[in-house]
Design a protein that fits this description.
By secondary structure, this protein is mainly alpha-helical. Helix content is about 50%, strand content about 10%. It is globular.
């Protein structure tokens, strides 16, 4: 995963800065594919919305991955018939 800021003269507090987000999401089987698809569609949004993103992108990345992981676990529990919370 990489987040790259464009090489402009804009400062970190300037919200006109442009960023590029690169990641590979690999899912094998139904369970992993659902998680990979969720991350593909949402992780970059969660990272960019984190209040730490401009000042501390590493912290924003750590926070966002934890948040996405909690969301995926919650979804798994909702779709599960067993007590382990795994997607069927």
């Amino acid at each position: 995963m990489a987040i790259i800021q464009s090489s402009t003269t804009a400062t970190r507090s300037d919200y006109t800065c442009k960023f590029s987000f690169f990641a590979i999401y690999e899912g094998v089987g139904n369970t992993n594919a659902e998680a990979a698809n969720y991350l593909r569609d949402n992780l970059h949004k969660v990272i960019f919305r984190d209040p730490n993103f401009r000042k501390n992108p590493t912290l924003a990345l750590v926070n966002s991955i934890a948040k996405a992981n909690r969301h995926i676990n919650d979804l798994a529990k909702m779709h599960s018939n067993d007590s382990e919370g795994q997607i069927r």
